[in-house]
Amino acid sequence: MAPALCAICETARALVKRPKNGQKLCKGCFITIFEEEIHHTITATKLFSPGDRIAIGASGGKDSTVLASVLKTLNERHNYGLDLVLLSIDEGIKGYRDDSLETVKRNAVQYDMELKIVGYDELYGWTMDQVVETIGKKGNCTYCGVFRRQALDRGAKMLGIKHVVTGHNADDVAETILMNLLRGDLPRLARSTSIVTGDESSDVRRSKPLKYAYEKEIVLYAFHKKLDYFSTECIYSPEAFRGSARTLIKSLERIRPSAILDIVRSGEDMAKLVPEEVTGISHCKSQKVSLSSADGGEEGAGGCGSNGRSSGGEMAEMEKKLQEDEEASGREVDVALIVPSTANGQRHDRIGGKNGVKKETGRKLTRQTLGTCKKCGYMSSQDICKACMLLEGLNKNRPKMEIEIDVEEEEGSTLRRRMEGLALAAG
Amino acid sequence: MASTEDISIIVEFTGGLEMLFSDERKHKLSVPAKDSKGEAITVGWLVEYLCEEVMKDTRKEMFVLDGHVRPGILVLINDADWELEGEATYTLQPNDNILFVSTLHGG
């Protein structure tokens, strides 16, 4: 069969069929349009300002490698005036992270960027290998996710950086939207659709410049640009629920490739329908946020959100990682479950749990407000941040937890059991 | 009876798929030009062949699901998305390069 020609230049052989619209493109035109669409996302959402120092959360994997490459290209092509730095987290997983960190080190040389690596061991006194040794493989993703999110913030602060970009792509966002939909968690669904989280009052803002980029195109971009990236699965078990959502997304994509972006757009539209009181998102909520004096001096300079949807609540990255954890802790459930009557109807089955009994009708509304953890001083919507709570459990209750984790259940409820056991032991 | 004539092709696995294939990224294969029915072999035939003859890993479902290449695995035929080449029905030519890239693995 005669090779198809590129729909744009009409001369070169088409090598890529774009999932979003079926357009057939040659290598050169694909690379250009991929980069320019991300440029469009960045400019349309006013993501950066000239002179910004930006940390790229870099794992050595395809997404963050492509993000670093594209941002470098665009920064030079469009004179963003950004100072780009690679920020990597060493979770302390032998045979996994140590290999991918080697990739990041090569990327730092290839892209001529400064590289900062922060380790769980120095931040928390625990490597993930040690965590898993203590609690087992089940539920360890919760720990890792909570720790990583804070580690990125801390690493950024060490570098004096107020904006971290991550490589989350359209597939990731669609997956999170679906998961929140399947859990009936509208507040979180709404927040997870924002391209930027955190506002002028946050120490560190987060954004996802690849939010509208298909994972497929990211991989093809890396392939055609011959980027050096590392791919492996974490040696510890992945979250079961997320895995199912991922499989569903990929199966939908096969039948209807535009489905992924359609889910992202639907999520954005649904987010607009969720009342502000529920999401904790507001157009400018700096007055609601109290930060400790230590943190207060370092407020971000980003204005109150470029697209009017920046989140003043917890950051989307954290949300992604924290879903099981949310159900696990009474405090969290308290916040997550107490929603105005508009959403109550969707919630009874989740409220059935031990923790949910808490006078869900008693309180009108609890909005998530950002404060700081009384223990470590980092951003938290609770008195004690999740990282500190988990650490406390790790440090105090090893024997109890080892017994609890054998329960064959989904991670969330397993963790809840652990936390309940923990509370008993502590009390 | 199948033809005894063989063709050589290169099959590559990346994005984490190599771990299913003895941790080897590049496989130079010599495959029969015709299948057992005497028809020219296709990528669909190759996928089955890879599962049965090349993959030593038992986790076949990480490569093939419900008789298709697992959703989330990209197939490139001489650098072109196989969707542009008729997907599984593409007839293999001598010296073709078939690349399987997983998008499913994180970093």
From TrEMBL, chain A:
Chief site of localization: cytoplasm
The Cytoplasmic tRNA 2-thiolation protein 1 C-terminal domain, residue ranges: 371-402
GO cellular component: cytosolic tRNA wobble base thiouridylase complex; mitochondrion
InterPro entries: CTU1-like_ATP-bd, CTU1_C, Ncs6/Tuc1/Ctu1, Rossmann-like_a/b/a_fold, TilS/TtcA_N, UPF0021_CS
Residue ranges, annotated region (Disordered): 291-331
Coiled-coil portions: none
Catalytic activity, EC: 2.7.7.-
Record carries keyword RNA-binding: yes
Stored Pfam families: ATP_bind_3, zn-ribbon_14
Annotated compartments: Cytoplasm
tRNA(Ile)-lysidine/2-thiocytidine synthase N-terminal domain sequence ranges: 54-233
Pathway note: tRNA modification; 5-methoxycarbonylmethyl-2-thiouridine-tRNA biosynthesis
A GO biological-process term: protein urmylation
CDD domains (UniProt xref): CTU1-like
Extent of Basic and acidic residues compositional bias: 317-331
Function field: Plays a central role in 2-thiolation of mcm(5)S(2)U at tRNA wobble positions of tRNA(Lys), tRNA(Glu) and tRNA(Gln). Directly binds tRNAs and probably acts by catalyzing adenylation of tRNAs, an intermediate required for 2-thiolation. It is unclear whether it acts as a sulfurtransferase that transfers sulfur from thiocarboxylated URM1 onto the uridine of tRNAs at wobble position. Prior mcm(5) tRNA modification by the elongator complex is required for 2-thiolation. May also be involved in protein urmylation.
Family stated for the protein in its record: Belongs to the TtcA family. CTU1/NCS6/ATPBD3 subfamily.
Protein known as: Cytoplasmic tRNA 2-thiolation protein 1
TrEMBL record, chain B:
GO BP terms in the entry: protein urmylation; tRNA thio-modification; tRNA wobble uridine modification
Domain of life: Eukaryota
Post-translational modification: C-terminal thiocarboxylation occurs in 2 steps, it is first acyl-adenylated (-COAMP) via the hesA/moeB/thiF part of UBA4, then thiocarboxylated (-COSH) via the rhodanese domain of UBA4.
Residues the record lists as 1-thioglycine modifications: 107
GO cellular component entries: cytosol
CDD domains: Ubl_Urm1
Keywords, comma-separated and alphabetical: Cytoplasm, Isopeptide bond, tRNA processing, Ubl conjugation pathway
Pathway noted in the entry: tRNA modification; 5-methoxycarbonylmethyl-2-thiouridine-tRNA biosynthesis
Main localization (coarse): cytoplasm
Cross-link Glycyl lysine isopeptide (Gly-Lys) (interchain with K-? in acceptor proteins): residue positions: 107
Compartments, as annotated in UniProt: Cytoplasm
Segments traversing the membrane: none
Function of the protein: Acts as a sulfur carrier required for 2-thiolation of mcm(5)S(2)U at tRNA wobble positions of cytosolic tRNA(Lys), tRNA(Glu) and tRNA(Gln). Serves as sulfur donor in tRNA 2-thiolation reaction by being thiocarboxylated (-COSH) at its C-terminus by the MOCS3 homolog UBA4. The sulfur is then transferred to tRNA to form 2-thiolation of mcm(5)S(2)U. Prior mcm(5) tRNA modification by the elongator complex is required for 2-thiolation. Also acts as a ubiquitin-like protein (UBL) that is covalently conjugated via an isopeptide bond to lysine residues of target proteins such as AHP1.
Protein name as annotated: Ubiquitin-related modifier 1
Source organism of this protein record: Phialocephala subalpina
Chain's gene name: URM1
